[in-house]
Amino acid sequence: MDFLNILNCTILTPLVFAAGLCFVPAAKTHAIRWLAILGSFVTAVLGVLAFLWFSASDTGFQFVNQVPWVAALDMSWHVGVDGISVVLVLLTGIVGFAAALVSWDIQSRQKEFYVLLLIMIAGAMGMFASLDIFFIYFFHELALIPTFLMIGIWGSGKREYAAMKMTLYLSAGAFVALIGLIALYLALPADVRTLDLVKLLDYARSHPLAANVQYFIYPLLLFGLGTLVSLVPFHTWAPVGYGCAPTATAMLHAGVLKKFGLYALIRIALPLLPVGAHDWNGLLVVLLLGNIVYAGLVAMTQKNFNYLLGYSSVAHMGFVFLGIASFTFIGLTGAVLVMFAHGILAALLFALSGYVYAQTGTREISELGGLCKPLAFVGTLLVMAGFASIGLPGFANFPGEVMVLFGAWQAPAWQAKMGAATVSWPVPLAIWGGSVIGAVYMLRALRNICFGPTPVRWQMLADANLFARVPYLLLLGVLIWVGVYPRALVETIKPATAQIITAVEKAVPAVSLKR
Amino acid sequence: MNLSLLKLEIATCGLAMLVLMLEAFVPRRDKRFLGYLGAAGLLAILAWSYCPSVTAGGFTMGSGFNGMWVNDAMALYFKRLFLVGTALVLVMSVGFARQLEGGAGEFFALLMFGCTGMMLTASVNDFLMLFVALETVTVSGYILVAWLRRQQQSLEAGVKYLILGALSTAFLVFGITFIYGSTGATGFADVAAKIGTAGAPLKLGLLLVLAGLGFKMACVPFQAWVPDVYQGAPAPVTAFLATGSKAAGFVLLLRVLFGALQSVKPTWVLVIGTLAGLSVLYGNLAAMPQRNVKRLLGYSSISHAGFLLLGVAAADSFGIGAVLFYLVAYLFTNLCAFTVISCLAGTLPDDERENYAGLAQRSPLLAAAMTVALASLAGVPPMAGFFAKFLIFTAIVGQKMWCLVIIGAIGVVVSLYYYLGVVKAMYWQEPRETGAITVAWPMKALLWVTMAAVIGIGVCQGAFTRWAFDAAATLVK
Amino acid sequence: MQDQLFWFFSIAMLLSGVLVVLGRNPVTSALFLVLSLFFMAGLFVLLEAYFLAIIQILVYAGAVIVLFLFVIMLLDLKTENVRQFKRFGAGGALLVAGALAWKLASVVMAMPAADAKPVVGTTEAMGKLLFTQYLLPFEVTSVLLLIAMVGVVSLSRKETK
Amino acid sequence: MIPVTLEHYLIVSVLMFSLGLAGVMLRRNALVVFMSLELMLNASNLALVAFSRFNGNLHGQIFVFFIITVAAAEVAVGLAIIVALFRRRQTVQVDEINSMRL
C-alpha cells in the first residue's frame, strides 16, 4: 500500500487520529477535542488537495493505488477517484471538519464520541475513494456502526427507538444491496470474476450482461441502495433518525453517508446494468415522485424542526433520483451536483438546528419564535440556508436542480416508454412539487422560528461566538461559491458522467437523444 | 503402522497427561501455572505444526492405519484451529480459576484431552474412528459442563447434555450399524465404493448419523440442549463447546459428506439445505426474546450452525472454503465474547442482560470487546464475521439457492436486532451498580488478542481466505 | 433348536426391556436390564460371537449394572409414588417410538438377503483384528477411559472449600 | 416355523431400539432414562453382530467391542454427574431440572 497516496492518506488519517485518541485519558476533554478537530482538519485539507490536484481534463481514475487483497475473489485494495468521487471526497472532508467543529455541545464521554466521529469520516472517505466493490460496501458499513452508537448514547428524544429503527432499516437495505452485488459478481463467467470496479467496467463495456440477468439484479440494488437513500416507501427511518441524532451525526449521515446509495447506483448499477435500469425506470419514476411530492407534503405537517429537515432531505433525494432516471448527460451531472449541494446544505441546516437546540433545548417549531433578534447571526444563516433549500439562485442547489430538470425534460427514455409527446409528465410535477411544497414548509418553519415576537425566555439567548461561527460560515461559503460558480464542480464531474452516459446509451439505444 | 502421522495428537495427549501428573505435585496456589503451561505447550505444538517436517508432503501427511486416518491440508487446518482455540480457552480458564473448585489441574487436562479428541476428528476416515473420536470429545464435554459441582445450573446443564448427548450417540451408532450392514464396511472409501448398490438402509443410516453429528453442530432439530447447557456450563466450557466442539461436528460432517457420500450429493444437499434454513430461522427468532446473555449466545450459536450449513449446502469448494473461514472467524469471535462473560462471572450476580447495563462506564475494555464480538457475530464490518458471511452468501448465491438466500437475509437482519440489544444495554443504560470492574492482566491480554484477531481477520482477509480455500480444495475435488 | 432358542431369547429380552421401561422402582429396572442384556448375550452366542457374549456379561452385568445398583443404593431412592411418567404424556412418546419402529422395520424388511459365509467371533480372531487393523481406535479408547476416570474422580470427590 | 434369518435379528433390534427411545421419552427418573439409553445402544450391538455374521466379516463385532467400552465410560461419567446433582438437589427427576428458563 502506498502511504503517500493522497487517497490512502485521506482514509487512514482519521483512523490514525481515532487510534491516537484511544490513548488519551478520557478526562482530558480539551486535548481530545482539539486532537479530533485537528484530525478532521487534516483530512479536510487532504480532501481539498485531492480536488485541486485532480486534473479535470483527464478521463479515467486518478491517484490510483492497487494492492492485491484476497486473491480468491480477485479483490484488491484499490483506490482512485474520477470526477464524481473526487467531488464527494471534497464534500466528506468539508462536512467532516464542520461536524467536528460543531460538536462542542457534547458534554459526556467525549473521547468515545470523537473516536466514533473519526471512524465515520474514515468510512465515508473510504467508500468514495475505493474502486473495489467490496471495499465500497465495507467502508459504508464501517461508517454505519458509529451512527448507531452515537444516536443511542448522545441522541435526544426517542433516541433508542430512532437508533434501532435507523440501524435495522439501513442494515437491511445494505444487505439487500450486498446480495445484489454478490449476484453481480457471480453473473460474470468464472474466469473473469472480479470485485474490481475498473476491471468490471472494462469487461461490461465489451461483454454486456444478459438482459434477464440485469433485470433480476438491478432491483436488488435499486431497493437495497434506495433504502439507504430514503427512497419512498423505505424512507421512514430518515426523519426519526435525524430527529433524534446528535448534530454531528445528523450532519455526517444526511450530508455524506446517505449519498452512498446514490453513488453506488451511479457508479456501479447504471454502467453495469443499464438494461436493467431502463427496465425498472418506470417504477423508479413513480417512487421518486413519491419522494418529491409525498415526502414534501408530510414535511408540511411536521412540528419538530429536525423531523422537517429529515423529510426535506428525503424530498431532495427525489431530485437526485430524477437525474439518474433521466438517463441524460445533463441530468446525471446535475444529480451529482445536487448530491454535493445537498450534502453541504443538510450539514449546514442540521448544524444550525443543533445550535438552536443547544441554546433552547427544544426543536418544536411552535415553541420557538423570533430567534433572529437574540441570535442575529445564526438566525440569518438559518434563513439563508432555508433559501438555499428551496432552490433560490445563488446557492449550490439551484444549478444542480436546474440541470436535473433540464435533463428530465429532454429525457427520451420516458417519451419512448410512456408515450408522452414532447414533455414528460413527471417533470412539471417535480418542478411543482419541489419548488412549491419545499418553499411552503421551509418558509413557514423559518417564519415561525426566526421571526415574529420573541418569547421572553428566548430573549437572553447567546449568539454564536467567533469560533462557533467558523463551521457555519465555511459551509455557507461553499454553498454560495458553488451556487455562483458551479463550473468549478461541473467541469470536474462532466467527463465521468459523460463516460457513464455513453456506456448506457450504447447498451440501451432507446435512451439516447435524437440529435 | 506409521506413528508420525499422529505426531500432533500424541504431543497434545502427552501434554495433557503431563499436566495431570504435575497436578499432584504443584501446590494449590500455583495451579494456574499448569494452565499457562498447557496453553504454552499447545501453542508450541501449533508452531511445530508449521515445521517443514510436519507439513511437507511425505511422512506426516497422507493416510494410514488401514485407511482409517487421513492427514491432509484440511485436517491440518482444523487441528491448528483446535490448538489455538484450546490454548485460548486454557488462558480463559486460568482467569476463571477461582470459580473452579479445587482440581483446576484436572480441568485443564480435560480441556486438552478434549482437544486431542477434536484433533482426531479432523483426520477421521472411517465410521468406527468417527465414533471413537467423537465420543472422546463428548465424554470430556460431559465432565467439563458439570464441573461446577456447587452450582446447580452447571449440574443441571451436565445432566441435560449427558442425556441428550447419549441419545444422539445412540442414533449415531444405530446409523453406523445400518451403513455397515448395507455395505459391509465402515471405511469411508469402501462405503463410497458400494453406495451405488446399497439402497434404503444406507440412506436411513446416513440420516441417523447426521442426527448424531447435528447434535455436535447444534443445528435444528438437534438443538434442544443448547440454551440450557450454554447458560449453565462454566463460561470457558461454553466457549469450548461453541467453538471447538462445533467445529469438530462440522469437520466430521464434511468428512462424511465428501469422503463417503460424494456420489449422492444432490440428495444430501437437499437435507443439509433444509436443516440450514431451519437452524437460521429458529436460532434467530428464538434468540430475540432472550434476556440472558449466555442463553442468547446459545440460540445465536444455533443460527450460526445454520449459516455454516448454508455453506455446506453450497457443496462446492468455494462454499466449503467459506465454511472453513467462517469457523476461524467464529472461533475468535466467540472466545472474545466468552472471555468477557467469564471476566464478569465473579462480579455480576448472573448473566441477565440487565446486569450488563452501563458496562461501558464500569469497564470500557469489556464493553468494547463485547461490542466487537457481537458486531462480528452480527456480521458487521470490519469484523471477521462480516467477511465470513460475505463468503457464505457468495457461495449460496453462486448456487442460485434463492430460498436459502432469503432465509439467510432474514436471519442476518433479525440477528442484528438482538445483538444490538446487548450493545444498547452496555452503552446507553445506566449501570445498576457503580464501581469500576477490574480485569486481571491475563484476561486483558486475552481480550486484546481476540479483539485484534477478530478485526485483523476481518481486514486482512487475504491470507486466511487462502488457507481456508487451499484446505477446502483438498476435500472437494 | 437354534431357532427355538432365538425366539426364546429375543422374546425374553424384549419383555425384560419393557419391564425396564415400566419398572416402578429403579432397582427393578436395573435388574431387568441385567436380564435383558443377559438374553442378548444368548443371542450373541447364537450368532457365534462368543467373545462378545462373554464381554457383554462381564462388562454390562458385571460392571455397568453393578454401578447402577450401587448408585441407586447410594442415593437411597424410594419407589416412585408420584407421577412416574413425564407430563407430555405417554401417547406422544409411544407414537414417536412406534413410528420410528415402523419406519426402521419397513426398511429392514426390504433389505436384500445376505449370502456371504458366516464368520465366527472367537477371542483369537477378535484379538488379532483389534491389535492390527484396529489398533488406532483401540489406543484412542484407552485415552477415553482415562478421561472418564479423571472425570469421575473429580466429579465425585468431596467438595473442598 | 420360519427359519431365522438376518431380518429376524434386525426386527428384534429395531424393536429394542424403539423401546429404549420410548423409555427415554417417557420416564422422568434420570437413572431409568439412562438405562433406556443403554437399551438403545444394545439394540445397535445386536444389529451389528447380526450384520457382521451375515456380511461375512468381523468388523461389526469389533465395532460392538468399542461400543461396549465407550458405553461403560459414558455410564461411569453419567452416573457421577447424576450423583452430584442428587447431592445438590435431592432429585433425579428430569422434569424438575428446570432452574434455567427464559
Keywords, separated by commas or semicolons:
heterotetramer, C: 161 residues, mainly alpha, Four Helix Bundle (Hemerythrin (Met), subunit A), 2 domains, 6 helices, globular, D: 102 residues, Helix Hairpins, 3 helices, 76% helix, 0% strand
Helix-strand layout with pairing:
The complex is a heterotetramer of chains A (515), B (477), C (161) and D (102).
Chain A (H helix, E strand, L loop, with lengths): L5 H17 L6 H25 L8 E9 L4 E7 L1 H19 L8 H20 L3 H22 L4 H29 L9 H10 L4 H18 L8 H8 L2 H11 L1 H14 L1 H6 L1 H20 L4 H22 L2 H32 L15 H14 L7 H14 L1 H7 L7 H25 L15 H19 L2 H21 L8
Antiparallel strand pairs in A: 1-2
Chain B lengths: L6 H17 L7 H18 L3 H4 L6 E3 L4 E3 L1 H23 L8 H19 L4 H19 L6 H32 L4 H7 L5 H18 L8 H7 L2 H26 L4 H23 L5 H22 L2 H29 L13 H4 L1 H15 L5 H15 L3 H27 L12 H19 L1 H15 L2
Antiparallel strand pairs in B: 1-2
Helix pairs in contact in B: 1-2, 1-5, 2-4, 2-5, 4-5, 4-11, 4-14, 4-20, 5-6, 5-11, 6-7, 6-11, 7-9, 7-10, 8-11, 9-11, 10-11, 10-13, 11-13, 11-14, 12-13, 12-18, 13-14, 13-17, 13-18, 14-16, 14-17, 14-19, 14-20, 16-18, 16-19, 17-19
Chain D lengths: L5 H21 L3 H26 L3 H31 L13
Strand content of chain B: under 5%
Q: Distance between the terminal alpha carbons of chain B, to the nearest Å?
A: 28 Å
Spatial arrangement of strands, main beta sheet of chain B = 1-2
- Total count of helical runs of at least 4 residues of chain A: 21
Instruction: Tell me which oligomeric state these chains represent.
Output: heterotetramer
Domain count of chain A: 1
Describe the structure.
The complex is a heterotetramer of chains A (515), B (477), C (161) and D (102). Chain A is mainly alpha-helical and 515 residues long. Chain A contains 21 helices and two strands. Chain A has one domain (6-511). In chain A, 72% of the residues lie in helices and 3% in strands. In chain A, 63% of the residues are buried. Chain B has a domain at 276-477. Chain B is 75% helix and 1% strand. Chain B is built from 20 helices and two strands. Chain B has helices at 7-23, 31-48, 52-55, 73-95, 104-122, 127-145, 152-183, 188-194, 200-217, 226-232, 235-260, 265-287, 293-314, 317-345, 359-362, 364-378, 384-398, 402-428, 441-459, 461-475; strands at 62-64, 69-71. Chain C is built from six helices and no strands. The model of chain C has no long low-confidence stretch (mean pLDDT 84). Chain C has helices spanning 2-22, 26-46, 50-75, 90-109, 123-131, 135-156. In chain C, helix 1 packs antiparallel against helix 2 and helix 2 packs antiparallel against helix 3 (50-75). With 161 residues, chain C is mainly α. The relative contact order of chain C is 0.08. Chains in contact: A-B, B-C, B-D, C-D. At the C-D interface, helix 1, helix 2, helix 3, helix 4 and helix 5 of C face helix 1, helix 2 and helix 3 of D.
